[in-house]
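Late entry, written up from scratch paper. The run itself happened at the end of the previous shift, but nothing got recorded in the book at the time, so transcribing now.
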Amino acid sequence: MSTPRPDFTKQWSLLIDIEGFGATYDAGSQALLSLGVLMEGIYKIGSRCLKESPNRIFAHQIGDGFIVLGEFAWESLEEPLSVTVALLRTILMRGGVGKAALHEGQFADIVGCYPKVIQEQYARSGGGAFPLGGGLMTVFPVMGQALIDTNRLISAAPSGALLVIWKKDLTRLPQGVVTECSGDLCVLDWIHTSFPHLQQLLKDSALLNPEPPLMITMLERYLSANKLPEEWIGNTRRYLHLDKGACLPTPEDAGRLNKSPGWQPDC
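Output as recorded:
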């Protein structure tokens, strides 16, 4: 079997944010707790598991979420998918929920495009905040299609605690991923999905590895405790197969579902 080779021209990209951050920020500590859990999860994965080239990861906070990038892109999406599912489950098990999109593209340091005075201050600060009179300025040092296109993908996704990819990337998923596609998008069931790379990443990163029934219980608690739009609730229930008695598609069923969105598996 040949060793997988990376695509050196691109990086896989994951955009993940905390759902309901603005609506719950003033209501208590859950919003910041969820963001902190996300930060810690990314740190554990990067420092304990994906820590050497060509599998290193890079993360940049953007408001209530992060853009996480692999060192390179790969033909299979199992590595970025493992990271995404692990982080969404980590957030859930601490009482919050997230939303994520997976894509890929180019990403680069753009500080050299900034005005000279900003470059100088940025260099003096070691890449951190620098003086702005009596205040402080921080700048976002990186940009590229990896962020732009992933943001476009997550903006086009249905509302809900969902994980989405472009349909054209469906064949790059590992076996064991439950999906449902509509139009150009596919939603991945991150509750019921399981594959070897994910299990190994969870173990190596020392992250929680809950069974689906426990995750469903935690998600039901979140739905009950928060005032959420009906569409948000409906999409979350549908794509994550939360309703009792619902048929959970097998990976084989998922192939039929992708070709015929109206098809339903036999119960």
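The chain has nine helices and eleven strands.
(Scratch paper discarded after transcription.)
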